[in-house]
Amino acid sequence: MRATRVRATGVAALAVFLAVITGCSSQILRIYPMQKQQTVAVGKSVVLTCQAETQDPALVTQPQWKDPKGFVINEAAPGTRPEIYTEAMPAKQSQLLYISSITQAMAGNYTCVATYTNMPLSASVVLDTFVAITWVNANENQFATKGKDFKIMCEVTAEPAPSVDWFKEGTTIVTSDRYVIHANGLLIKNVEESDDGTYTCRAVVIQTGELAERNIKLEVYTAPEMEEREPRVEIKEGESAAITCKARGKPPPTYSWIKANTRENLATTSRYSVNDNTGLLTIDRVEAGDYGKYICSAVNQAGQNETEIEVEVLVPPKIFELFNTTAAEKTDGRLECKATGRPAPRISFRKRSNNDPFLNGPNEEGRIIIESSSRQTGDQMQSSAVISIARLNRTDDGLYECIAENEGGEARKNGHLTVQFKPTFEHMSNVPVWSWNSQPVNISCIAESIPNATIKWKFHEYDLIESPHVKIYGSGPISYVTVVPVDRNLYGVYKCIATNTLGEAEHIMQLREAFPPGPVLQVKQDTITATSVSFNIVGPAEDMGPPTLAFTTQYKENGNFDWNLSMNRTWSVNSPYIVENLTPMFTYDFRFAAVNQVGAGSWGAPITVVMPRRSPPEQPKWREAISSESLIHGKFADRYELQWKIPAHNGEPIDMYEVNYCPVLKVSGEWRVASETQCMVEELRSYEAISYEVRGLHPDTRYRMQVRAHNVLGYSLPAQLYVQTALGNPNGSTSIFQWAPSKMDILTTLLLLYFII
């Protein structure tokens, strides 16, 4: 047996020797990849190639793969793909081994075998497996709640087992008071909003050198926190209203509204709508009953919060009661006004003839008192107020306005307080009624009273009886008598007697016969020019007749004895009594008479007036009363308009006006012309000129301005005034402006200084 083994060993050695000699050492099988030991992650796909490397491939059989247990791995049947199979490549004398998803059970020594001219060939490779890093429970988005503990889950599996580290946005996290690193995650105690961010869970397998990181975004949810707002809102009846509710929270909360007293979800009612994303509560056509407490609730994943809002419905006042009332003078009267609304209306009274309302409480030292009260009636408040007036007088009569006000609006209504009083004739005149030449007249009587009075007439203390010449019209409160005084016995005292339930009053009227006025008592000559004369007239006494309405005069040249050829002039009473267009140096006779509604009285004795000779015109008069020494402040910086009245021409027509103006300065209380060379003269060749605008003036400068009238006999005395122009630029604006002085201005200033010194 031993000899047999020796022979066999010798044969094998000989074969090896022969192979070396003949070059058979190059006949081998090679496995690709060429590593003798390969490590593959569980679940990965593997492909191994076994290829014969020989000088004559035809002498090599097709290689085969054997699993770690020595079983041949077969090729896949057509249309199938098992977990492990082979695939031949005859052209290359290769055999491919496919493992679609390696498992730990598949680890081991895989061998490829073939023969070369009956010589066995083999090659093997060891496949080791490992479990790669796997994230089992590590969602990339996780959510924590503020104020609570939270574990960021990060479970990692690997074979060999990995070590795990934690980072927050690049900063290493270690176990501390707030952080605890567990095998399956990072525990954060009492989560804060600042914990929001990105965390990195890092796994390392030292044996394999595998490194993996998982970024986990942590969002910190916060429970809704209601924003501060006014706890009370006011909305108006009949309008649409919107009530807002806001809460801060993460994620944004959703909202709901309920009415506190009914616990009704307002999103399900017809007139209400709720936006659950914005918290807006909308009420359509607000009703009075919508007042009360409302609860807004905000909810998110972190919690729930709510706030209570008091809603006040503003219902504009409505006055439903205010009755007119009547009371007698010197008694007490009252008006009551009632109104509804929400909140309770404030009621006040105002007499329509006054702007200001009465005060609540006593007025006029307690004679007028306003009292008010309010109470709840259903969904609204009812207010009432009473105005009480003691010792009524006639001035209390009239319309009283009730004003009801609240935050929703106001209402107004008028009530009439009628104060009854006995008849009075306080507004009747005592002026006599005049008649002449049997002219018919009306004697009127108007009695003021409440209730209306009835009227009867008396004449000479007897009841007035109608006749063809006396007629009575109306029995009250207005009545009048028509009298045709064909007989002087119808002149005299007529008495109107008015009566109502509260008393009686009478009014006396005189029917008197009228005559023309008596002669004028006195006429004096007042002002005389060459062509005009004015008079002062004292009229006749009016005791026996109607008042004087006018004065009339006749005038003629002295020496002409026929008054029928005279001229005349009539003036109303109290007007200027002036006769114009007379001839200079003539002598005139004037006589005067008074005129009333009957006619003109008798002429008084004539007076004679001698007209002066012709002369220059009278001094012009300014259209407005202006003192010749006072200083007028003009509106413009560069101009001023002079306005005057046309003076008497004194016998010769005015042919022009002269306007002159000079800069002046007041020195020691007197006006002085600074320089005659600066005086300007303008001529207006028109009789009818009554105004002139002086232009080219300097700002903030004082001027003396004069106007003289001229006729062929010379100049009148000047009308004079002093003007100071306004500050500003030469265009007339009133902004401050400093004008550059000219050489003439400098000279003027020097001369003024000379006068001052």
Automatic annotation (TrEMBL):
The keyword Cytoplasm does not apply. Keywords: Cell adhesion, Disulfide bond, Glycoprotein, Immunoglobulin domain, Membrane, Repeat, Secreted, Signal, Transmembrane, Transmembrane helix. Signal peptide: none annotated. It holds the Pfam family fn3. Coiled coil: none annotated. GO terms for cellular component: extracellular region; plasma membrane. InterPro entries: FN3_dom, FN3_sf, Ig-like_dom, Ig-like_dom_sf, Ig-like_fold, Ig_I-set, Ig_sub, Ig_sub2. Residues 516-614, 616-729 form the Fibronectin type-III domain. Residues 33-118, 120-217, 224-312, 317-418, 423-512 form the Ig-like domain. CDD domains: FN3, Ig. GO terms for biological process: anatomical structure morphogenesis; cell adhesion; cell differentiation. It is found in: Membrane; Secreted. Its main location: membrane. The keyword Repeat applies. PROSITE patterns: FN3 (PS50853), IG_LIKE (PS50835), PROKAR_LIPOPROTEIN (PS51257). It comes from the Eukaryota. It is a single-pass membrane protein. Belongs to the hemolin family. This is Hemolin.
